[in-house]
From TrEMBL:
Protein family according to the UniProt entry: In the N-terminal section; belongs to the carbohydrate kinase PfkB family. In the C-terminal section; belongs to the cytidylyltransferase family.
Binding site for ATP: N198, K199, K200, E201
Self-association state and partner proteins as the record states: Homodimer.
Enzymatic reactions: D-glycero-beta-D-manno-heptose 7-phosphate + ATP = D-glycero-beta-D-manno-heptose 1,7-bisphosphate + ADP + H(+); D-glycero-beta-D-manno-heptose 1-phosphate + ATP + H(+) = ADP-D-glycero-beta-D-manno-heptose + diphosphate
Ranges of residues in domain Cytidyltransferase-like: 348-461
Entry function: Catalyzes the ADP transfer from ATP to D-glycero-beta-D-manno-heptose 1-phosphate, yielding ADP-D-glycero-beta-D-manno-heptose.
One Pfam family cited in the UniProt record for this chain: PfkB
Record's keyword annotation contains ATP-binding: yes
Pathway listed: Nucleotide-sugar biosynthesis; ADP-L-glycero-beta-D-manno-heptose biosynthesis; ADP-L-glycero-beta-D-manno-heptose from D-glycero-beta-D-manno-heptose 7-phosphate: step 1/4; Nucleotide-sugar biosynthesis; ADP-L-glycero-beta-D-manno-heptose biosynthesis; ADP-L-glycero-beta-D-manno-heptose from D-glycero-beta-D-manno-heptose 7-phosphate: step 3/4
Protein name as catalogued: Bifunctional protein HldE
Annotated spans, Ribokinase: 1-320
Alphabetized InterPro entries for the sequence: Bifunc_HldE (IPR023030), Cyt_trans-like (IPR004821), PfkB_dom (IPR011611), RfaE_dom_I (IPR011913), RfaE_dom_II (IPR011914), Ribokinase-like (IPR029056), Rossmann-like_a/b/a_fold (IPR014729)
Domain named Carbohydrate kinase PfkB: residues: 10-304
Amino acid sequence: MINLQGKAPKILVIGDLMIDHYLWGTCDRISPEAPVQVINVQRESSVLGGAGNVINNLHALGAQVGVMSVVGDCEICDELKALLNDIKVNTNHLITQKNRITSKKSRIIASQQQVVRYDRESTDEISQESQTQLLNSFKNLIANYDTILLSDYGKGVLTFELTQSLIAIANENGKKVLIDPKGLDYSKYQGAYLLTPNKKEASESLATNINDDASLAYVIKKLKIDYDLKVSLITLSEQGVAIYDDELRVHPTKAREVFDVTGAGDTVLASLGFSLACGYGIDDAVKFANLAAGVVVGKIGSATATLNEIIEYESSLNKSSSDAHIKTHDEITILSAELRSKGKKIIFTNGCFDLLHAGHVRYLETAKSFGDVLILGLNSDQSVTALKGANRPIHMQSDRAYILAALEAVDYVVIFNEDTPYHLIKAIQPHILVKGGDYAGKEVVGQDIVEELKLVQFVNGKSTTKTIEKIQQGK
């Protein structure tokens, strides 16, 4: 996968903001009043939806996100702003229009199945005054952003006149505009960099059924020509994503168990915008978006995908090398917090692992058995020399890290320079610290930070020092 770690492009999202509200419960009986299920609601949650889900996805990827939209003067709007503030997205450029209701979609979920949805919203076009205010703000803000995303849910914010004006201003300023379209008439998106319709939407927009390679080629080329797009793109569900600029190509995706496709289109738009804003080409951006979408369809509800989840997913498809499991201090700090938030039990161990042998592997397999994720702190070359002497290490740190990262038991490797991993343990905050059995009765560095210390006995006769001695003795 392209390297997007540490990237923080500035991306502006404009479109229909809404709240996705969920009531989670169980169903054990049918109502005596009518032939309907009785749901025992156990908890409820609210997340950003619509254009807000695009924002959530960008935030999860690490982008600096701005937002512009028109909202109602209602309690739902206050809730919406609170959700945006929670992820530190500025709401100063949200325009309030009287007598308008901000969209809120409530879903009742029982045993992981959606039972019913009810909506509260305004869907009429925003006023001319609101459009003018949005446009004036856009002219003042556009220089601050790398890429513009328009998320059209057909709720009235992206009118024909406003959309065309936004695209024209963006093009004048050399900014790419990516749009998740709505409806049958795509003429209001004329001049955009690309659109992200799915196969059904693209077919309906041109009244041509996509049922083979020839019809796909016809539709995707016609979309590019008719609407003056720089790149024509159609998402093909489990078949992947088709793109056309000078030639047609399809980037396939890997099938996985699909729990919920809610918001998958938002993830595609956000991940495309994120990677393009980082300076990557359209093919790399599409490959990245395919992976991101593969993550979110495995979750329930409007979901997001972090860079770490995407890397992990790619690894599960056997498309990543061991390099993907070697992290910097900053990367492992962020990743560890993410793992803890998901309830994962983190194990940490450390060592030089100069000449890898069976004793090392068995030790690491035992360590991994204590929890969910094993993070290995690897002494740097400098640190090994300080501990073992001038003739060590035998293998340089990059080689040792790569070999260790390839082991099934090891999830992540982090190289540290200090004589002890104390600062690394403090950053990771693991649940369990694992050390060799020779530490019995001794003070272990980092023991004060973790919840539990586990000592694992080494395999008799297996050690790097003894191996080196045999080599030196010619045995």
